[in-house]
Automatic annotation (TrEMBL):
Belongs to the NAD(P)-dependent epimerase/dehydratase family. This is NAD-dependent epimerase/dehydratase domain-containing protein. Residues 3-239 form the NAD-dependent epimerase/dehydratase domain. InterPro entries: Epimerase_deHydtase, NAD(P)-bd_dom_sf.
Amino acid sequence: MKIAVTGGAGYIGSTLVKRLVEGGNQVVSVDNLMNGDYGPLRALGMSEKATLHVADIRDGKRIEESLAGSDAIAHLAALPGLVKCRERPEEAVSINLYGTQQVLEAARRLDIGKVVFCSSAAVYGKPVELPVTESHPLRPLNLYGVTKLAGEKLMELYFDNYGIETISLRFGNVFGVGLFTHYDTVIPRFVRMGLDGESLTIYGDGTSSRDFVHVEDVVQAMALSLASKGLGGEVYNVGGETMEIGALARRVAEFLRNETGENVRITHLPPRPGETKEFSYNLEKIKGELGYGPRWSIMRGVEQITKFNLEQRALKV
Ligand SMILES: NC(=O)c1ccc[n+]([C@@H]2O[C@H](COP(=O)([O-])OP(=O)(O)OC[C@H]3O[C@@H](n4cnc5c(N)ncnc54)[C@H](O)[C@@H]3O)[C@@H](O)[C@H]2O)c1
């Protein structure tokens, strides 16, 4: 297949492009390089099978040229995360909403029959029932979640009106070493703090829980969605393992103590306002309908991130 990947130079995107090329697909990535780097894919010698078009998804004419001839689109380009969207609200709406509509318009004009969209657990807001299923009420607590929910609605609209098979995937908290890893979310942050000799900081009493999903499992869900047939206007939770933040800190600290022989301390700060306390995913739908099964446990990922950090540090010496 020829697959177009918007945001193909980013953290999840470049990991997906690598997997798609390894699976025998031809890939075209569309990325404005605002937050991405195609170097790691070039270093693997993949630039012939995975060409990069440097373009903005809001430039309809340019992306139509880039996407022409594709069988399916994986749409990842976005202003990601609640902090960036809070700090740059106009850009959040412009990229995540207008940009998503431009990608769908290009798909319609070019007669591309499948679009897979990256959504987020942020569309749910504060859970009223756990574990969260896809039919849980949707009440985002921040602009990021609102733009992702609007993106899902655009996907449904283009399925209902034009028959484009759209799938929206609601990722949990993504972690793990990808091809281009540039994030400092809670798991990599705990590992970095522990290796730097800092205390692992927990906001609140540590009983808040999250679903953690490894980037390779996210890519598995995307590849299954791209290969699916006859599914359209669908949404799926994409998760891995649920853990309380306090338990996560204790397990990371214990792991690092065993690895380095150094003591790792944990400190508590007041809870941050507006954060959801408990969160866990029901994954029955994606397991049953797409055959998805997460392969990475949190602790296997912690081991991988620690090894990656130690290797990066050794290179800098
Ligand atoms: N990482 C997570 O925890 C997580 C969780 C839920 C959902 N998601 C979603 O997954 C997708 C990929 O996230 P990521 O973590 O790989 O982020 P990322 O920032 O690493 O990747 C996004 C890519 O999109 C590109 N981009 C941004 N704006 C663009 C534009 N206007 N035109 C063209 N390219 C543009 C960036 O340069 C970057 O390479 C995003 O849609 C994000 O919202 C991520």
